[in-house]
């Protein structure tokens, strides 16, 4: 579609939206005073106030035990950082929260780094961070024991997702260092905790070589798992151990590392929770030979969406376009069901100093500074707009992270298309330590509040909780949304396990209580930590941190 026609359509769509809310305050970026201390190339919210950041073992400024740290805890209340001691190299790992609330980070870099002599290889690592009750993280540490607690197969650049029994499926990756793309692949799946003593071979991972690092993986509401890597997609049945081949992503677009697009499971709604997956960005090149690629190769603007029921699969992918091409975009849920599209570059590739004409060490160029919003329910071709979205002013290319926070805004950090800490004049894309939030309009108005929430919520149950609703929102007919969310593990333009399940419910006539019904089972929302948000007419409350399910260690069916 011609770009002019396209932007006209979105401008018209937005014009009508802004008429509906004439005095609405805008979106804004807020730069924090303190920096992240390490390059925050991975980020996961582990409690209502704490985010774990991981970098590679390198020469970052933040110190612990007389060496550079490569793990850190970011405090969302005070916007401050403290180092976290890590044993193994967490560079390019994945991770998630388990059914018992413990965070597991898996895989990583096989090598150490000269500045960190004590570093251990990370490619078979499992790093655990147990639930932390201290709002500031006092006494909370990572646990590692490489001799007894490790993956079956070596995995650098793997993916993972929490599944219906609260454990993790761990997917793909490569064994050791390879140039640019996957030449030494781990063509298998495994689980944490283990379900068997050998990894499960995967034809899909073989078929999707060579641009298949960090496969995009989602637990579906029937317990199966959707995966997309390169331009291939499947549904994997964990219980039957079978792969069902789905249509390719259209038009030769490849969406996984080093041609990173991103993917997201769109919000699941009762009563049927029909899953739909959206994949955006990446690259439309036939070759993966880095000598034939440059930092100026245009990225793909394509967004492809597929509904994963029989009818939707028969219909295949539906295509539309972002306002610009993006390599390494981030797709992140808002509690109201919209999707934030942020970061990445208009040209080039992921990885470091491998293609022609790198910009310094960066394989990518032309950073996209203005986010867009994707509205799933809008008509095809009118779903994406950046009207009212500000510029971040900070390029976020390879090795950056974004996460929704329990406060309802987005925490944005990282970017480092360099081998080590690289800062200084003349460096266009330095190691980035600045931390920002992207604050939605509702952060600056009076918001609904969830005044109390049980710590644990059982499946298929009804709960009534006290709330307060500002008078401006207490009107009959207001749009009420109650979302149960996993905020995901952000690494390499993908948010492992990120999920939004809408819950049926309603606000009492006096606006003082909210009654809602939890998802029917752990297939719809894999048992584990969740954040509950109440949104009234697009004004979202702060989230309530809960345990969805029993809180038992995996595997658990409740
Ligand atoms: C850190 O280095 C200082 C000075 O070299 C030394 O005195 C101190 O014992 C070291 N601390 C640790 C925890 O190794
Ligand atoms: C991967 O696919 C190739 C080409 O079809 C085949 O020769 C090879 O045996 C496969 N490898 C594995 C491990 O399945
Ligand atoms: C997917 O990639 C393969 C391998 O490059 C190619 O043969 C195939 O045509 C692509 N599919 C589509 C729909 O573009
Ligand atoms: C960065 O590291 C890669 C692989 O470790 C190496 O091949 C490359 O030469 C390094 N580049 C720079 C600029 O140091
Ligand atoms: C959920 O609970 C209702 C009764 O409250 C029951 O009829 C229904 O079968 C339950 N569903 C599941 C999936 O357990
Ligand atoms: C959670 O489960 C994992 C996997 O079995 C285990 O390693 C961890 O210690 C458990 N954490 C808690 C708090 O029970």
TrEMBL record:
Cited Pfam families: Glyoxal_oxid_N, GO-like_E_set
Every Glyoxal oxidase N-terminal domain range: 67-442
Keyword Oxidoreductase part of the UniProt annotation: yes
Record-linked Gene3D superfamilies: Galactose oxidase/kelch, beta-propeller (2.130.10.80), Immunoglobulins (2.60.40.10)
Organism domain of life: Eukaryota
Molecular function as annotated in GO: oxidoreductase activity
Boundaries of every Galactose oxidase-like Early set domain copy: 447-548
Enzyme class: oxidoreductase
Transmembrane in keyword set: no
Keywords: Oxidoreductase, Signal
EC code(s) of this entry: 1.2.3.15
Signal peptide positions (record): 1-20
PANTHER family (UniProt xref): GLYOXAL OXIDASE (PTHR32208:SF96), SECRETED PROTEIN-RELATED (PTHR32208)
Name listed for the protein in its UniProt record: Glyoxal oxidase
């Amino acid at each position: 579609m011609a770009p002019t026609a396209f932007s006209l359509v979105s401008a018209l769509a937005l014009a009508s939206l802004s008429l509906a809310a004439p005095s609405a305050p805008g979106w804004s970026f807020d730069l924090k005073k303190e920096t992240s201390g390490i390059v925050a190339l991975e980020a996961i919210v582990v409690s209502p106030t704490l985010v774990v950041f991981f970098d590679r073992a390198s020469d970052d400024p933040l110190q612990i035990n007389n060496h550079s740290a490569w793990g850190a805890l970011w405090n969302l209340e005070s916007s401050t950082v403290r180092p976290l001691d890590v044993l193994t190299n967490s560079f390019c790992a994945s991770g998630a929260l388990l059914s018992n609330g413990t965070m597991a980070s898996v895989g990583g870099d096989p090598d150490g780094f000269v500045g960190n002599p004590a570093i251990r290889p990370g490619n078979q690592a499992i790093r655990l961070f147990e639930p932390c009750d201290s709002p500031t993280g006092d006494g909370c540490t990572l646990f590692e024991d490489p001799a007894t607690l490790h993956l079956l197969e070596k995995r650098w650049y793997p993916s993972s997702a929490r599944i219906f029994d609260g454990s993790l499926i761990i997917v793909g990756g490569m064994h050791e260092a390879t140039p640019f793309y996957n030449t030494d692949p781990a063509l298998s799946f495994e689980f944490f905790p283990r379900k068997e003593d050998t990894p499960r071979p995967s034809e899909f991972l073989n078929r999707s070589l060579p641009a298949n690092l960090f496969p995009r993986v989602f637990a579906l509401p029937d317990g199966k798992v959707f995966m997309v890597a390169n331009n291939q997609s499947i549904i994997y049945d964990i219980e039957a151990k079978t792969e069902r081949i789905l249509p390719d992503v259209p038009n030769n677009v490849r969406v996984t590392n080093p041609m990173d697009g991103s993917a997201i499971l769109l919000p699941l709604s009762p009563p049927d929770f029909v899953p739909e997956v959206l994949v955006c960005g990446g690259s439309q090149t036939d070759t993966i030979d880095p000598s034939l690629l440059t930092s100026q190769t245009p990225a793909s603007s394509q967004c492809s969406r597929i509904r994963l029921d029989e009818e939707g699969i028969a219909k295949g992918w539906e295509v539309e376009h972002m306002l610009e091409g993006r390599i390494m975009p981030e797709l992140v849920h808002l509690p109201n069901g919209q999707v934030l599209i942020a970061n990445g570059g208009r040209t080039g590739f992921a990885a470091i100093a491998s293609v022609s004409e790198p910009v310094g060490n960066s394989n990518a160029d032309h950073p996209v500074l203005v986010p867009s919003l994707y509205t799933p329910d809008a008509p095809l071709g009118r779903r994406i707009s950046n009207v009212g979205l500000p510029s971040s002013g900070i390029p976020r290319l390879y090795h950056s992270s974004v996460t929704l926070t329990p406060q309802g805004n987005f925490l944005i950090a990282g970017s480092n298309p360099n081998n080590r800490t690289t800062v200084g004049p003349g460096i266009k894309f330095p190691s980035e330590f600045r931390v920002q939030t992207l604050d939605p309009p509702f952060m600056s108005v009076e918001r609904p509040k969830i005044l109390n929430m049980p710590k644990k919520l059982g499946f298929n149950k009804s709960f009534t909780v006290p709330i307060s609703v500002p008078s401006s929102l207490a009107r009959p007919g207001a749009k009420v949304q109650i979302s149960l969310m996993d905020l995901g593990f952000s690494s390499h333009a993908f948010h492992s396990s990120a999920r939004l399940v809408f819950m049926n419910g309603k606000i009492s006539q006096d606006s003082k209580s909210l009654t809602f019904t939890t998802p029917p089972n752990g297939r719809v929302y894999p048992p584990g930590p969740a954040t509950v948000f109440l949104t009234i007419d697009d004004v979202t409350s702060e989230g309530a941190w809960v345990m969805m399910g029993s809180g038992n260690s995996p595997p658990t069916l409740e």
